[in-house]
């Protein structure tokens, strides 16, 4: 079993548009940017003007203009602006950190897959040698040239190597899944896995 890796640059390109967590953080940042703009606009005075007409029960009528100006005297909404800017900066920092972690996860998964590929290849090369050793020990035991213990030791070594190979192949499949998760991309395992 060998895992063919896609191009690392291809996996890293546009990762921000493939991973759902990064898309969510980017949209949250854009939303927070609009909230900051709204807080900045709230610092300017609100004005309203209108025509007022009033009449009481003695049939006295009055009319005129009404002008209202909301003047922010003390802080001009600076506290709300600072809070919204800090929230926006926190979202941007979180987004940048997650992008960095995603790229690091991809690099680590690729390194793990390459290492596991080499270990699987070494274990597969060792199997025929151990199988020949078991055959030789069995023939020697049948001819009375070796004891049963040496045969079982050889057979145990072969079985241990097969178990090790199965565990390495399992780790290789897990690393493939980790690469898919880190890259935010489906990597078909039937196209990626080649049996040697």
Cα Rg: 36 Å
- Helical fraction: 55-70%
Count of β-strands: 4
The poorly predicted ranges are none
The structural class is alpha+beta
Which CATH top level class fits?
Mainly Alpha
Proportion of residues in extended strands: 5-15%
The assigned CATH architecture is Up-down Bundle
Q: How many separate domains make up the residues? A: 1
Order of helices and strands: EHHHEEHHHE
Mean pLDDT level: 85
Strand order of the largest sheet: 1-4
- Name given to the CATH homologous superfamily: Outer membrane efflux proteins (OEP)
List key phrases describing it:
196 residues, alpha+beta, Outer membrane efflux proteins (OEP), two-stranded antiparallel sheet, two-stranded antiparallel ribbon
How would you sum up this structure, described in words?
The chain is α+β, with helices and mostly antiparallel strands and 196 residues long. The chain has one domain: Outer membrane efflux proteins (OEP). Helix content is 69%, strand content 12%. It is built from 6 helices and 4 strands; from the N terminus they run E-H-H-H-E-E-H-H-H-E. It has helices spanning 8-12, 15-18, 20-41, 78-142, 148-183, 189-192; strands at residues 2-3, 46-55, 61-70, 193-194. The strands form 2 sheets. The protein has a two-stranded antiparallel ribbon. A two-stranded antiparallel sheet has the order 2-3. A hairpin with a 5-residue loop joins strand 2 and strand 3 (61-70). The chain is rod-shaped and about 130 Å long.
């Amino acid at each position: 079993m060998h895992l063919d890796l896609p191009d690392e640059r291809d996996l890293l390109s546009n990762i921000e548009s493939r991973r759902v967590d990064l898309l969510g953080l980017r949209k949250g940042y854009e939303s927070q940017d609009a909230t900051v703009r709204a807080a900045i606009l709230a610092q300017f005075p609100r004005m309203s003007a209108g025509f007022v007409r009033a009449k009481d029960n003695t049939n006295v009528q009055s009319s005129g203009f009404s002008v209202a100006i909301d003047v922010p005297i003390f802080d001009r909404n600076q506290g709300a602006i600072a809070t919204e800017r800090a929230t926006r900066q926190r979202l941007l920092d979180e987004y940048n950190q997650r992008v960095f972690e995603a790229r690091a996860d991809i690099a680590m998964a690729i390194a793990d897959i390459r290492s596991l590929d080499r270990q699987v290849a070494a274990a597969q090369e060792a199997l025929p040698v151990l199988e020949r050793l078991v055959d030789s020990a069995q023939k020697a035991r049948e001819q009375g040239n070796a004891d049963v213990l040496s045969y079982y030791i050889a057979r145990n070594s072969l079985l241990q190597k097969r178990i090790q190979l199965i565990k390495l192949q399992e780790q290789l499949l897990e690393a493939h899944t980790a690469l898919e998760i880190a890259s935010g991309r489906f990597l078909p395992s039937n196209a990626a896995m080649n049996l040697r």
